[in-house]
Specification:
Strand order of the largest sheet: 1-2-5-10-7-8
Largest sheet: 6 strands, antiparallel
Distance between the termini: 11 Å
Strand content: over 45%
Shape: globular
Helix content: under 10%
Number of helices: 1
Number of strands: 11
Order of helices and strands: EEEEEHEEEEEE
Length: 178
């Protein structure tokens, strides 16, 4: 029922990192935004791994994020339906800024959900702590009939600082119908 690939972050064909901004690290997960490192960590909960996004740019009000864009067939399947995105998230002790979970659709082509003609179906800030906590967001409307791509973002906004503990970590990511 999970529409995302590699939601448990177990597949890392390129190695365990660190990977830098605007690159794939963990298979199917793309790091985008400003300077940051993507690395594999042991999961804090059940099994598998987590994806750590460490912000390492001292510039104020910048962002770091991870995203997954689903295949066209997944977008076609989701048309006219509500979606729910859930994952476990924790932050480092020096975390700055805010963290939002987003579900996004793209209507102009099948490319990345973070370029082109895109519509953020839901974007909710979450009160992330240093303990791994499950968060869930659900769209209020449905995926449009013209959706060419759908996907998710975990979006760290208004951050600054190069402290090694200015990070967030995601595990058990799931996107589902309903």
């Amino acid at each position: 029922r999970n529409l995302l690939d590699n939601g448990s972050f177990q597949i890392w064909q390129r190695g365990a990192g660190p990977f830098t901004v605007n690159n794939f690290g963990c298979d199917r997960w793309y790091g985008w935004g400003n300077q940051h490192n993507l690395t594999r960590q042991a999961a804090t909960q059940l099994h598998g791994f987590s994806l750590r996004v460490a912000h390492n740019d001292s510039t104020s009000n910048t962002f770091s994020a991870i995203a997954q864009t689903c295949e066209y067939e997944t977008a076609a399947f989701a048309r006219g339906k509500k979606l729910t995105f859930s994952c476990r998230v924790r932050k480092g002790s020096a975390f700055t800024g805010t963290l939002a979970l987003q579900i996004v659709e793209r209507t102009d082509t099948t490319g990345s959900i973070n370029t082109g003609t895109r519509n953020v179906l839901v974007s909710n800030d979450v009160a992330v702590t240093t303990s791994s906590t499950r968060f869930t967001v659900t769209t209020t409307g449905t995926v449009s009939n013209g959706a060419q791509a759908i996907g998710v973002n975990v979006f760290h906004n208004a951050t600054s600082g190069t402290d090694a503990n200015n990070f967030f970590e995601v595990e058990e990511a799931q996107l589902e119908i309903g």
